[in-house]
């Protein structure tokens, strides 16, 4: 047993090296690209002034942000700040946005984001919101696609490594967060050696308000101390269920590379969330202390508030019979994907040679006939053979993730053999395979994890770039590859670089989002308490050591633009309102020596930058965003006098 594992591990490592070396040494890559179509350029070309067909939202990985790309061009349209501060537009630096990055650990202006998911109605993309997880300090963010702005971030308590997230149910009833690491819950000081049997994993179901989009933790299911890696909701016939892959069912706490690969099979946990919801609605579950931040952007003031919550409802699976089952799945499954009909649940076993497909119908049968094959911590384990729908035989090495098109095909990514394999759902036969450059993680088809995929393109999100672009030193961006999947064979069309490390991505037709996209904020609707909506509102007010400047801006001046009476040791708040009401005329604001970035203020909005002058002098501020022929004239001065000066405020 042990021996097989070592062989498998060796295989993993060798195969990894081979695929990388292959890439590194290649002179001309075109010969090796199989599916590169002869008129590829034409098919990705989006003429100047034309729009792409799809928005693709690609996770920023360790950048903590969300990249918005156009498909098929691969053009980067925007870096949308989520979990990380972004000096480019002041996200996480302005007083309005700082509370968004608050957590129970304090201000945490970075995270590692993996999985964007677009909201759905009846299992079809609806273009309202994108959700994305923060892995490191467990959080889920909601981005409003009207504003293309992060409007809410909720922290997940009793979780560690929020990886199995942020996947949503068919009507966006819930966004789900699963813990990657099991930990003592509640946290306490104990020996790591006592992990087994004592650590726990939490699966968190967060209710989404259909009007406002606001998130609220409904319950946390307390699971055995495995690692919960990825998840997907049931759809259509399996609506009401959620499936989570697990690894390290050995509950090893050290050298997981070896110790967590002993078991022949790990599990997919099948959760009947409808049943648990009913149990909870009838008063079930236990309220326990929990400390977590819930940060919301107010829609009138565009100012975030952070609230610290103090309890959460926990559910023990043993208290809801029939709600949780384990489906044995070979070897350290990573992705857990459900086909558009909801019948097939695919376990992508990283260390398995075959792809295992479970049948939802057979699963329900086995449950009804109580055909179990033991239990783990009281949770029934179903018999592998009883629920097996089929096996895709030896399709490649190191399967990670599977997406679906609208013609009954599945596309699985293989990290080790660095390829994408197309196979037929139901017959399990391999139809096509294409190499990718190099070592693909997720793949993405627009709507490819919904009931209605838009099966035109497949994007491979590759981990390793190597020789694909002009070298930029030891650090390269990551790389995506676009395939046309309308024919029998996948055809490679385009490589394009991506920011951070895009794990998962989600894409939607542009015309499902763009018509609702906001152009400006209406100045008349600006309810910011420090807004100056007309020139007569502008003022400078001292409150002890705090000085509040109510300033406005329009092409191309600030009002006021000369301010005197500020002193060393003061804390100066520039509350700046952009009076423009034209699309795409933001102004910027920066002041010398301010260590907290600039801010970019969109038409109709108010943003606040704090400045603590350390030295006397007459200091300039200016607009950082080219706005008119007189942009360079858009400037002002603020005079700073000694702390004991008796010069009064004037402007
Ligand atoms: Cu496979 Cu974090 Cu979705 Cu990366 S995970 S690849
Ligand atoms: S100035 S257009 Cu520095 Cu030429 Cu910007
Ligand atoms: Cu305003 Cu440049």
Descriptive tags:
651 residues, mainly beta, globular, metal-binding, 44 strands, binds (dicuprio-$l^{3}-sulfanyl)-sulfanyl-copper, Methylamine Dehydrogenase, Chain H, binds sulfanyl-(tricuprio-$l^{4}-sulfanyl)copper, binds dinuclear copper ion, Sec-dependent nitrous-oxide reductase, copper, Immunoglobulin-like
Furnish the topology, listing elements before pairings:
Blueprint: H1 2-25, H2 40-44, E1 54-59, E2 66-71, E3 76-80, E4 102-103, E5 106-107, E6 117-121, E7 124-134, E8 139-144, E9 149-155, E10 167-168, E11 174-178, E12 200-208, E13 215-224, E14 227-233, E15 241-247, H3 256-259, E16 265-272, H4 273-281, E17 286-297, E18 304-315, E19 324-330, E20 333-338, E21 344-349, E22 355-359, H5 360-368, E23 372-376, E24 379-382, H6 384-387, E25 388-392, E26 399-404, E27 409-414, E28 419-424, E29 430-435, E30 440-444, E31 457-462, E32 478-484, E33 491-498, E34 505-509, E35 539-543, E36 546-554, E37 557-559, E38 562-567, E39 571-578, E40 587-591, E41 599-601, E42 606-611, E43 617-622, E44 635-641
Parallel strand pairs: 13-18, 36-39, 38-44
Antiparallel strand pairs: 1-2, 1-34, 2-3, 4-5, 6-7, 7-8, 8-9, 9-17, 10-11, 11-12, 12-13, 14-15, 15-16, 16-19, 17-18, 20-21, 21-22, 22-25, 23-24, 26-27, 27-28, 28-29, 30-31, 31-32, 32-33, 35-36, 36-37, 39-42, 40-41, 40-43, 43-44
Residues 556, 587, 623, 625-627, 631, 634 line the site of dinuclear copper ion.
């Amino acid at each position: 047993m042990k021996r097989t594992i070592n062989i498998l591990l060796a295989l993993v490592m060798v195969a990894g090296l081979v695929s990388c070396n292959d890439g590194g040494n290649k002179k001309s890559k075109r010969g090796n690209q199989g599916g590169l179509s002869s008129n590829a350029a034409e098919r990705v070309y989006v003429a100047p002034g034309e729009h792409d067909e799809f928005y693709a939202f690609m996770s920023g990985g360790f950048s903590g942000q969300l990249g918005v790309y156009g498909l098929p061009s691969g053009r980067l349209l925007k870096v949308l700040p989520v979990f990380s501060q972004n000096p480019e537009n002041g996200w996480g630096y302005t007083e309005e946005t700082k509370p968004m990055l608050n957590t129970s650990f304090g201000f945490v202006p970075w995270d590692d984001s993996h999985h964007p998911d677009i909201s759905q109605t009846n299992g079809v993309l609806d273009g309202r919101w994108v959700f994305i997880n923060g892995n490191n300090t467990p959080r889920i963010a909601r981005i409003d696609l009207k504003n293309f702005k992060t409007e809410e971030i909720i922290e997940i308590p009793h979780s560690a490594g929020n990886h199995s997230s942020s996947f949503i149910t068919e009507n966006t009833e819930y966004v789900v967060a699963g813990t990657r690491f099991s930990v003592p819950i509640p946290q306490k000081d104990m020996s790591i050696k006592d992990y087994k049997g004592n650590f726990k994993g939490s699966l968190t179901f967060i209710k989404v308000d259909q009007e406002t989009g606001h998130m609220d933790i409904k319950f946390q299911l307390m699971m055995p101390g495995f690692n919960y890696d990825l998840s997907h909701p049931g759809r259509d016939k399996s609506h009401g269920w959620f499936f989570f892959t697990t690894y390290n069912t050995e509950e090893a706490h050290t050298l997981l590379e070896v110790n967590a690969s002993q078991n022949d099979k790990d599990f997919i946990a099948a959760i009947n969330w409808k049943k648990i919801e009913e149990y909870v609605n009838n008063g079930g579950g236990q309220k326990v202390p929990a400390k977590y931040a819930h940060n919301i952007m107010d829609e009138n003031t565009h100012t975030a508030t952070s609230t610290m919550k103090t309890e959460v409802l926990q559910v023990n699976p043993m208290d809801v019979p029939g709600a949780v089952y384990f489906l044995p799945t070979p070897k350290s499954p990573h992705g857990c994907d459900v086909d558009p009909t909801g019948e097939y649940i695919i376990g992508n076993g990283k260390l398995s040679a075959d792809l295992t497909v479970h049948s939802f119908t057979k699963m329900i049968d086995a449950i009804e006939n109580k055909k179990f094959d033991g239990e783990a911590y009281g949770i029934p384990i179903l018999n592998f053979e009883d629920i097996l729908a089929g096996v895709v035989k030896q399709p490649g090495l190191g399967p990670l993730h599977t997406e679906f098109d609208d013609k009954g095909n599945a596309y699985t990514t293989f990290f080790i053999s660095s390829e994408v394999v197309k196979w037929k759902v139901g017959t399990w036969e391999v139809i096509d395979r294409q190499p990718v450059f190099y070592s693909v993680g997720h793949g993405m088809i627009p709507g490819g994890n919904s009931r209605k995929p838009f099966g035109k393109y497949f994007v491979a999100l590759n981990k390793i770039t190597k020789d694909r672009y002009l070298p930029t030193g030891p650090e390269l961006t990551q790389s995506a590859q676009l395939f046309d999947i309308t024919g029998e064979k996948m055809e490679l069309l385009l490589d394009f670089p991506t920011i951070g490390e895009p794990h998962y991505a989600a894409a939607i037709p542009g015309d499902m989002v763009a018509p609702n996209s906001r152009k400006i904020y209406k100045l008349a609707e600006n309810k910011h308490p420090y807004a100056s909506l007309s020139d007569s509102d502008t003022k400078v007010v001292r409150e002890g050591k705090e000085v509040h400047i109510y300033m406005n801006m329009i092409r191309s001046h600030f009002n006021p633009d000369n301010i005197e009476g500020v002193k060393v040791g003061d804390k100066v708040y520039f509350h700046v309102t952009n009076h423009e009401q034209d699309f795409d005329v933001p102004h910027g604001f920066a002041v010398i020596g301010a260590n907290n970035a600039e801010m970019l203020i969109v038409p109709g909005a108010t943003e606040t930058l704090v400045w603590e002058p350390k030295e006397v002098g007459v200091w300039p501020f200016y607009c950082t965003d080219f706005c008119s022929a007189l942009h360079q004239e858009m400037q002002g001065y603020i005079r700073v006098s000694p702390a004991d000066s008796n010069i009064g405020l004037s402007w």
